[in-house]
Amino acid sequence: MKDVVVVGSGAGGATVARELSKKGANVTLIEKGPFIKPKKAYEHYENSDVGIELLKTACVGGTTMVTAGNAVRTCQKQLKKFGIKLEEEFREAEAEMGVGTLPDSHFGDGTLKIMAAAESLGIDVQKMPKSINPNLCKPCGKCAFGCPKDAKWTSLEYVEDAEKLGARVVENTEVTELIIKEGTVKGVRSHEKEFYADEVVLAPGAVETPRILRRAGLDAGDNFFVDTFVTVGGILNGVEFNKEVQMNALIKKSDDVILAPHFSEILVDKLSAQGARTRDIIGLMVKIKDEASGSVREDSIVKYSTANDVALLAEGSALAGSILTEVGVDPNTLKSTHARGAHPGGTAAVGSVVDKNLETEISGLFVADASVLPEAPGAPPVLTIVALAKRLGKYLGQD
Questions:
Q1: 3-state SS class at 143
Q2: pTM of whole model > 0.85?
Q3: Helix, strand, coil shares, percent, the chain, to 5
Q4: Using an 8 Å Cβ cutoff, are 278 and 243 in contact?
């Protein structure tokens, strides 16, 4: 029975820990942040300004605690180029996570108006696949703060499963470096503490993973993308869009640009001079598949918006404005948030830093988070990360 250390308890780390625990491995899951209740997740954001505002959290469950519960397949074509086929793992994950579209009862007036307006303009509109239990969900608009009803799947569920199967979970512990001897990983170090293992899986996210790898001498940290997004919105008096399930529809302009109904408190501040209240704002997120123009180093994170990125954001924002005007928003009230990024990845990409089995050149050292994605997904990557981690768990469980 082998010993495995998994670093990070988000979508990738929790999934690998669970899969290996099912196979009988001795798993130690190490998380920088604490155990919390999902409704308290908003207290554990660790945002940073890296040219755009980068959103991430540190707690058991990671950023899955503050997602909108979107569950779409991404990067399948790109990963197939490297010999990674995930059809079986996608099906498994979708079944376990309860992926499906929400019933009509969970679509608010604002979202329905946006969907109807887009369709009237000849734009393709779909219900967004969600990993949300409609029987528990009471629409409140708080998905990105942590679900107060525990209706949304988070990787906390997989962490708890792994614990029941014998995994040891170590919270409030930041892994600072790897223990390596003669080109083989032997464990990890957290300041003065050491955790020894036969194999190590890194999954603390696309910012921390490359920093750990670089300390071990690997050339990681380039190819950084974040799925840059803005939220465009305006005034529609009394719509109460802020209380709806967010991003409940998917409006696809192209493979590089998607739109989804989205409320942002930033727009309330921007429109307050025009008498807008929180209940009066309606908006659309414009998310692009940005170019991998950034880098992560020990003391810096840099992300540039390229000329192509700016053009895509402009195209998507123009379309968002057209849809919102069709909804009934006064175009004179239209505003946009600053650029933000919610899906950091690419910094330990497959084909560059890891092979098709997600192993680095250091024997026994693997990566199982968005760092391994070769390109920006341009859409929520949680389901893809879970599928990749399931595949890795099966591979490691063969021994």
A1: helix
A2: yes
A3: 35, 25, 45
A4: no
